[in-house]
Specification:
The complex is a heterodimer of chains A (306) and B (437). Chain A contains eleven helices and nine strands. Chain A is of the alpha/beta class and 306 residues long. Chain A folds into two domains: 142 residues, 3-Layer(aba) Sandwich (Rossmann fold); 151 residues, 3-Layer(aba) Sandwich (Rossmann fold), CATH 3.40.50. Chain A has a five-stranded parallel sheet. In chain A, strands 2-1-3-4 form a four-stranded parallel sheet. In chain A, helix 1 crosses helix 11 and helix 2 packs across helix 11. Chain B has 437 residues and is an alpha/beta fold. Chain B has a single domain, classed as Alpha-Beta Barrel (TIM Barrel), CATH 3.20.20.140. Chain B has eleven helices and 19 strands. In chain B, helix 1 packs across helix 2. The longest helix of chain B has 18 residues. The two termini of chain B are 24 Å apart. Classes of the chains: A alpha/beta (306), B alpha/beta (437). The interface between A and B is medium-sized, with 28 and 23 residues.
Chain lengths: 306, 437
């Protein structure tokens, strides 16, 4: 693995290796007085964020620092891809500075892949447009592994705005690769066209789709989508596709509720559900740090000297 | 001007003849022994009427960093063209007599191919009110074709009025068929590949809906409509049905839509970003068949040069469009059966005669016969070449065919008897001896 751009490119072995190393990272650091490992001492990791995402940037920053890497937060212009320095010039600048790894979040799908053409260092996709968010999928898989004892054979419902979700796409490829049954549920307006070839079941009826699931993953839905006629009103969306207490009761007792955050409480998820013990939302955040440590470690050391 | 003798050329695949050219016109055809004539040995070469492009972006005025009339027509000559129709989306827009006359004059000054300006339908391509179509039609540039290409004339009232208006001088409207509400933010063909790549989709129906509407408007008004860069299988169905009813409808297809598919977007390299986008394999097959059959009337390049910074960026930030003039002949041959299977007469029909008739270019798209202007190209059907962006005559480098080996080379191009290309190389023009190449 030179880069991590999408979970679609990962082999099952690579994905399982990342999840194994994630567990090792969690074990190595948890309970330590100084939660740091020396693995990436002297290496420079650049966080290149073109979208405001304090959550994800902080998670990557924490992961890199726990591996003793030097972290540079490169303030990229977020207002428009057409203004300011071009992505290529920024890449050439980072290259000249000797970045060992670049963690990029960008509103344009494919921007991380373009970056690999201009940089020698490792490129780690922290979310590109509506394309991919591989570390989110990996942390989701890791969370399922912890809470459900594994991914193979488990049934996962991903609910909501699939069309605009890089989280959904990355989970489809990763979870199916790891042997899970994936269901995508949402209104047809928020499902991509021509996805018959995806390794998923597709449903429009949330109640029916919740039967027998081991995990349900609620996606953030932007209220503004109603202005583009993706759904009539936030209220109707919530009634049809929101996870409330009544629907929570439809789930098997062991099933978990996941959300990549940030949540719209009262929209796709009721506040009581988000705060219920079955929700893994804060655990996902914690696991995100371990996963990102594992990925940075594997990309920057080729898994050597473990 | 000394006489020119083209020796032993295979005239449009019908057999070998010599062609004697005098004062820019064909003087004689047969077995000719002309002493003192400049002789071009065309043994093994096929002579075609010079290619005519209905859809070229020459970028001048406004984006001379991407292409100029001079460099664009050099590229045209190198690709076997003797005439190109220059699209109106320059800066300023070709929406006045002044701009179209300037573009035509630049073409004459360059001398590599006849440049027929296309006028804008609406002022500034804004789609709000008609440009001075009559002034452009009656200008020295004699504009007959009008297009807001790059933008669809989506307002049905404006389209109706434009169609009615151009009837006064036998003109036509060339429509860029794209319902803009269905393509807001669109980046590539909507389908399985866009779903996976997370790039907003450009649905085929956005093209088909406008073509269906404009077929009906053309029939209702009795006017001529031409569809630019038809890219989908259903568009072909609609056009076939319209022609069967006798509607005055013509259509073009671009070389890239005859060869490439949306799979190319997986690289996220914007050299494959174009509007309308690359479609599915099934569309390519239908477009090829429709071109062979004649439902699609012509190959048009949509030659769209772009400066490096407009392509060396993320996909969404890149400008759409790709070079076409120097590769169109090769790809047309590929699409029409390959060098061994191609019917040269059909090739001449789709790349020269029909586009010349659509554009109203009387002297172009004519087979060699005594008295006709000597606008020809000589192609080597047995040769192949590899596309090297740096080796192209265009000022820009955004070819999607870099590294590909293509069939058929252009050995020579003649514009009114003067060689613009000889032995595969563009010749300097007499009028530009002082300029540096």
């Amino acid at each position: 693995m030179k880069h991590l751009l999408t979970t679609k490119d990962l082999t099952r072995d690579e994905a399982e290796l990342i999840l194994d190393v994630t567990e090792q990272m969690a074990e190595a650091v948890t309970g330590r007085e100084v939660p740091k490992l020396p693995a990436l001492r002297g290496r420079t990791v650049v966080n290149l964020f073109y979208e405001d995402s304090t959550r994800t940037r902080t998670s990557f920053e924490t992961a890199a620092k726990r591996l003793s890497a030097d972290v540079v937060n490169f303030a990229a212009k977020t207002s428009s891809v057409n203004k300011g320095e071009s992505l290529r010039d920024t890449a050439l600048t980072l290259q000249a500075m000797g970045a060992d790894a670049v963690v990029i979040r960008h509103p344009a799908a494919g921007a991380p892949q373009r970056l690999t053409e201009w940089l020698d260092g490792a490129v780690l996709n922290a979310g590109d447009g509506t394309h991919a968010h591989p570390t989110q999928a990996l942390l989701d898989a890791y969370t399922m592994k912890r809470r459900l004892g594994g991914v193979e054979g488990r049934t996962v419902a991903i609910v909501g705005d699939i069309l605009h979700s890089r989280v959904a796409r990355s989970n489809v490829w990763l979870l199916s690769k790891l042997g899970a049954n994936v269901r995508l549920i949402g209104p047809p307006t928020l499902l991509p066209k021509d996805i018959d070839g995806w390794p998923v079941e597709i449903g429009y009826d949330l109640d029916a789709s919740l039967k027998g699931v081991d995990a349900v993953m609620m996606l953030r839905v932007q209220r503004e989508r109603q202005n583009a006629a993706f759904f009539p009103t936030a209220g109707e969306y919530s009634r049809l596709y929101g996870l409330d207490e009544r629907r929570l009761a439809l789930l098997p007792d062991h099933a978990i509720v996941m959300h990549p955050g940030p949540m719209n409480r009262g929209m796709e998820i009721a506040a009581t559900v988000a705060d219920s013990p079955r929700a893994t939302i804060t655990e996902q955040v914690t696991n995100g740090v371990w996963v990102r440590m594992a990925v940075l470690y594997l990309l920057l050391t080729n898994g050597e000297a473990r | 001007m000394t006489d020119l003798l083209i020796k032993s050329a295979d005239l449009i695949g019908r057999g070998r003849q010599d062609v004697l050219v005098r004062d820019g016109r064909v003087a004689e055809i047969g077995s000719i022994d002309a002493k003192g004539a400049e002789t071009v040995d065309a043994d093994g070469l096929v002579l075609l009427p010079g290619l005519v492009d209905l859809h070229t972006h020459l970028r001048e005025p406004g984006r001379e960093d991407a292409e100029t009339v001079h460099t664009g027509t050099r590229a045209a000559a190198k690709g076997g063209y003797t005439a190109v129709c220059a699209m109106a989306n320059s800066h300023p827009v070709a929406d006045t007599a002044g701009v179209v006359e300037q573009v035509a004059a630049l073409g004459r000054a360059a001398g590599y191919a006849d440049v027929q300006p296309i006028g804008a339908v609406s002022v500034g391509l804004a789609g709000e009110r008609l440009a001075e179509i009559g002034a452009m039609a009656h200008s020295a540039a004699k504009v007959r074709m009008f297009s807001d290409d790059g933008h669809c004339v989506s307002d049905p009232v404006l389209m109706r009025r434009a169609l009615e208006y151009v009837k006064t001088f036998g003109g036509l409207v060339a429509q860029h068929a794209e319902e803009p509400r269905l393509t807001e933010g669109a980046q590539m063909n909507e389908g399985a590949v866009s779903a996976e790549l997370g790039l907003p989709g450009w649905p085929a129906v956005a093209e088909e809906a406008i073509i269906a509407r404009d077929v009906l408007l053309a029939e209702y008004t009795g006017a001529r409509v031409h569809f630019c860069h038809v890219s989908t299988a259903r568009s072909v169905d609609i056009i076939r049905e319209a022609k069967a009813r006798g509607a005055k409808v013509t259509a073009e297809v671009c070389p890239h839509h005859l060869l490439l598919t949306d799979e190319a977007a997986r690289s996220y390299d914007p050299v494959y970003k174009v509007n309308p986008p690359l479609r599915r394999e099934a569309d390519v097959a239908v477009l090829r068949a429709a071109l062979a059959e004649g439902v699609i009337d012509a190959v048009a390049t949509d030659h769209a040069p772009h400066a490096p910074q407009d392509k060396q960026c993320e996909w969404a930030a890149a400008r759409p469009g790709m070079l076409g003039l120097e590769t169109a002949l090769s790809i047309s041959v590929l699409a029409l059966g390959g060098p061994a299977g191609v019917d040269w007469d059909v090739l001449a029909e789709r790349t020269s005669r029909t586009p010349a008739r659509i554009a109203g270019l009387e002297a172009h798209g004519r087979d060699p016969r005594p008295g006709a202007e000597a606008n020809f190209t000589l192609v080597d059907p047995a040769a192949t070449w590899t596309v090297v962006p740096e080796g192209l005559a265009s000022l820009s480098r955004n070819t999607p065919y870099a590294g590909m080996e293509l069939p058929v080379t252009v050995q020579a191009t003649f514009l009114r008897g003067r060689a613009t290309v000889l032995n595969g190389a563009v010749l300097p023009n007499d009028s530009e001896e002082e300029t540096t190449e």
